[in-house]
Design a protein that fits this description.
Blueprint: H1 5-33, E1 38-40, E2 60-64, E3 70-74, E4 76-78, E5 84-86, E6 99-105, E7 108-117, E8 127-136, E9 139-142, E10 146-150, H2 151-169, H3 181-191, H4 193-196, H5 207-214, H6 218-224, H7 228-239, H8 241-248, E11 260-264, E12 271-280, E13 287-298, E14 301-306, E15 312-318, E16 329-335, E17 337-344, H9 362-377, E18 382-392, H10 399-429, E19 437-439, E20 445-447, E21 456-462, H11 466-475, H12 481-491, H13 496-504, H14 509-516, E22 523-531, E23 538-544, H15 546-556, H16 560-567, H17 573-581, H18 585-592, H19 599-612, H20 615-628, H21 631-635, H22 640-649
Parallel strand pairs: 6-15, 10-11, 18-21
Antiparallel strand pairs: 1-7, 2-3, 4-5, 6-7, 7-12, 8-9, 8-10, 8-13, 13-14, 13-15, 16-23, 17-22, 18-22, 19-20
Amino acid sequence: MKKEAIPLLIALVAPLLVPSCSMQRKIREIKQDSLSAKLAIPDEEPIGDKISTSAVKKDTLQVVDLEGHQMLIMKAVRDDDGEMVATDILDAATVTARFRHVAERNGKVDIEFQVIVPEKLQHSKWQLRFYPDLFVMGDSTRLKPVLITGSEYRKGQLRGYQQYERFLSRIVADTTKFIDMFQLEIFIERNLPEVYAFKADSSYVTDEAFMSRFGVTEKDAVRHYTNKLRASMNNRRKARREKMYARYVPVPIVTDGLKLDTVMQAVNGDFIYNYRQTINTRPGLRKADVVLSGEIFEQDRKIYTIPASEPLTFYISSLSAFADETEKYLTKVIERRAEANTACYIDFHAADALIDENLANNREEIRRIKGNIASLLENREFDLDSIAVTASSSPEGSYSYNKALSQKRSESVAEYFHDYITAYRDSLEQSSMDEGLTYNLDGTYSEKKDTIPEVDFISKSIAENWEMLDSAIELDTVLTGLQKEAYREAAEIPDPDRREMRLQKETCYKYMREVLYPRLRTVRFDFHLHRKGMVKDTVHTTVIDTAYMNGVQAIRDRDYKTAIALLAPYRDYNAAVAYSAMGYNANALSILEHLERTAEVNYMLAVVYSRTGDVEKAVQCYLHSCEQNPAFVHRGKLDPEIAALIKAYSLNEE
């Protein structure tokens, strides 16, 4: 290189090196100072965001205290001498606290914080990416990022898109442009005049017909006169689209999933963004923390990791705290007598009433009934008085025969289980040598039980269980509508034997006899019991209203929809709390206005009145609640409906 060219090269390169050196120096300073963005709590949220816009328009309110004295409340602030003076202007204040109390409403919480980016972190060739992380009850959620993009950085992104657009414009979509149509037409005119004659013919000629006449396909002819080099280059461009996009646009402009992407035209002081996020509440939610981290990018290269900020804490207040957890009781009438029943399917041999445990599924059914009887005999609340055993038969055969057979089977079953109870009672009397133990039928020992009283068995029978058959026919999904109608017509015949003979003629009789009839051969057990030690037929007692208490718990769990569903019928204080928590102000007001004015009721009224814009009543009810319970002085600062009134009218000022 010639010596005289060196100064010229330096003159050209120097302007490019200066900004680069400047950025490197700035990065070093940022790292040395460990600069980071900050999270801050903004000034108090606008009153209009929380209550009716008309709620604080009055300058002077006339309210009455609990003793009936009238007093005037004015919008006021303290002057330089500490005196309260009326004013319409409320000066903003800078809040430096690391926490704020926020209120949960309608099952949601709105938190607001400021992202403050120092001027030293900003550069026109950088993109700052900030990631707020929300921590709630041990879970973390990354909120939508905030991007601050320098003007030169954005120009670089747009330049990349422009370069990519120019690349795409070189891709030819219409491939016929690669065909030399003029030469192709001359070739066909000279060598294939019969084909050329088709030029003015609008009729369609298939490729097969073209080839059969001229020995060459249309595709072959087109391929011959196509500029293969240009077509190949075009195809290569198509294949390189994704690669070229990544080359020209290394950092795409993202629009989805962002809270903010702002372009800084000039670095001029700190950048401040008010970030607002809505959180769905959950049971036990008391606070939420927000931490901010970030990165600095130059093009697609991360050049600095911004240290995480100190956390902001939001303490969450909720109207669920006003739920009254006092237990609610119901008066319940307890009957001395009680009944229980079950059915079993015990099979018998034809024309026989003896129980065969080895027949069909008898052993399992008998085991189940014995288990039911044993549990009733050992029940600590009830004594078993009697068992009614009702056996029923299916309709085949004569009615008189079925009636007698059903009665015999009922008596057989009653005797069988009477013997079981007798053996069970005898086992209790065979005490073992160990004091306080009882020998059981299965050879084990257990605590000595009270003596089992005598149990009466009552044998009943249903000759032919037509009622159960009627239900089975209606519920059956195999029989057709016509077959069911034929059964209904036969069921109108009064005489059961003639009715059965009529059914035998129907096409569905075989199905009925094989599938439905066996279900009719049942033995029903009705157990009659009485409460131990109870003499009167009825006793009135009180029990906890579980439905109501579940509603109260739903308020505590902040499941307000469930709470309203459970508590609405009661129309009491807790129902009003649930309505208020969901923002159903009219429903809440219709209940609260008719309740005794306790401190809690007055406070809830103040909240609802503030929401509906009735400021005078809201202030009066709030002051009454504070007189009744001074704890509401502090509580009022936590609920935006009341905090707005406190701020506007300087309530509770000493």
